[in-house]
Amino acid sequence: AAGGAGADKADKPVCVVLLCGLPGSGKSTLRHKLVKNGWAYVSQDEMQTSDACEKALVKALKNGQSCVVDRCNVTPSERRLWMQHANRAVEKGVVKGVDLHYEAVWMATPPEVCKERARARSGHETLSPEKADEVIDSFCRGMKPPERSGQEPYDGVHIVVSAEDVDLVVQRFANPAKVDTNIQLDPPAKAFAAAAVAAAAATAAATTEAEDAEADTAVDLPAQAHAGAQTAAAAEVRAGSAEVFIIRHGERADRANNRDDGWIDDPPLTKEGRQTAKSAGAALRSLASLPWAPAVYSSPYYRCLQTANELAAELGLPVRVEPGLSELCIQRIFDQQPCLRGPDEALASALQRVEVDTSVAPTLSAPPQWPEEARHANVRVLHTARALIARHPGQAVCLICHSHSLVEITRHLPKTGGGAIGSQAGYCAMSHIAMNGQLLRGLDVSYIKHADLRMGAAPGSALAPETSAGNWMHGWQWQSSDSAQTRDPIDALLDMDLDEVLTLYSSFMRLFSRGTSDKQQEWRVGWASRCPTLRKKLQQARASGLFDIELASKAP
User: 369: which DSSP letter?
Assistant: First the structure.
């Protein structure tokens, strides 16, 4: 309770409920149901100005009425403003004899559904059907769901995903004078997972409808490959639907203690850095809403491997090395190709609590070559992140990387909330992206404070599978175990970088260039993850003669 700690026992409990969500998410419909139960309300759509809304809120509180605030409230600052209005009225004595409590209700209606509803409305006070998509997209870019914290001191946060959830909210707030705390919705983590599934389904439906309208404007290999495009669109949406945690490595010993153990480019962590990584892993156990992917992915740099060792052990997972997550390899940082510890030494020394998993080949087979251009590094880390996410639909994926990778992925991977992220990331800073592409935490370190190391490591096995797809060689070069065998032509094609294939096959380049930027990005993600739908299209393309050079000879 915001005012509970210092409130007089005779003070009347009054609740302010903040309805939050996109236009068209169902806030006003829910508000009307609460008003029927006797709640006062604030609606900027109806009251027009912020000043009028503040006056309506204060008037309700002066009358001892609980009040529901019907506004988008998609950012923490917008939500805190209402609490500030109420608290200030109490502090100044304008409102007396009340004990203020706050609760938040997040309407987790998928953006595509909100757009469809908003386009169908006529005569809305503030949003015309023509502007619906544009306005909702602008809200999506900065929105962040409410969560209980020192700055947002809610008694409860409720995530509405279904009509049943709406009914539960109405039951909880049936009596404005006494909230029924026995009525509970699903915990936020579980609710957001359900919301992400709904959002993915809505996006798939919208994608299918758009493809019907666009017909031949999409990237379409031979005409035969167009059959089943609607199914492919839905499959590709599902393939990219994963929960993602991106974490920077722990404290570097060379910068904290002037110690690099003879490896200037590849220093270890401090003792404190290892402990922080362990705490980060313990904290993650309670943050994931989906089951964990079978391994934690790490940059080959020693400080990242040490971080992954502690974190993965707390999650009960092995570690997979991913060169695509390597440090920014530019002249500003290095004056030559970085000299890293050899794989055998690094893995044996760093992974003391877990095993290395070589059952799956990495997205990139080697670290970047010096000097790397910054724009190429940006593409590299995003390509890697998207490929790894596409590998694990419906799972939580953890990536251990460097500050540059964390910032770049946080800015550009989320569908909403990532654009305005900062450029400085602390040690073990974490970004959390929900399965629907929403940024839930950006470059956050506060999560570590909630770690409970008393629980011990998560149940599960940190042992790697016995099967191996290859081995790490000198310089962190991946050698596939089947490299000496004859490859399937499509495998040989997919072993190459997409841009290299576009350069080699001009007919393919022309077809690829016809597609929208979104469709091209889908192909890049599908290429990296060897999406079955894309593979089928490539087989049909090869059968039609599009790739008229023997592909096996092109294998690296």
Answer: P
* Rounded Cα gap, residues 404 and 424, in angstroms: 9
- Distance between CA 365 and CA 308 in Å, rounded? 19
Residues 379-430: tens digit of each pLDDT: 999 999 998 998 888 789 999 999 999 999 999 999 887 766 788 899 999 9
DSSP 390-437: HHSTTSEEEEEE-HHHHHHHHHHS-SBS-TT--S---TT-EEEE-TTS
Q: Model pTM?
A: 0.52
Task: Count Cβ atoms below 10 Å from residue 184 Cβ, excluding itself.
Answer: 11
Length of the chain: 556
d(CA 217, CA 231): 17
Q: Which two tokens stand for residue 170?
A: 């109405």
Cα distance from N-terminal residue to C-terminal residue, the chain: 63
- The Cα 551–Cα 545 span in angstroms is 12
- If 0-12 CB within 10 Å is exposed, 13-18 middle and 19+ buried, where does residue 141 land? middle
Among residues 459, 380, 455, 390, the alpha carbon closest in space to that of 412 is found at 380
d(CA 450, CA 413): 26
Residues 451-488 have pLDDT tens digits of 877 766 655 556 777 788 999 999 999 998 865 444 57
* DSSP secondary structure letter of residue 68: E
Integer Cα distance of 25 and 9 in angstroms: 38
- Residue-wise DSSP of 490-552: HHHHHHS-HHHHHHH-HHHHHHHHTS-HHHHHHHHHHHHHT-HHHHHHHHHHHHTTSS-S-GG
Interior CA angle at 338 toward 335 and 341, to 5°?
150
Amino acid found at 324 = G
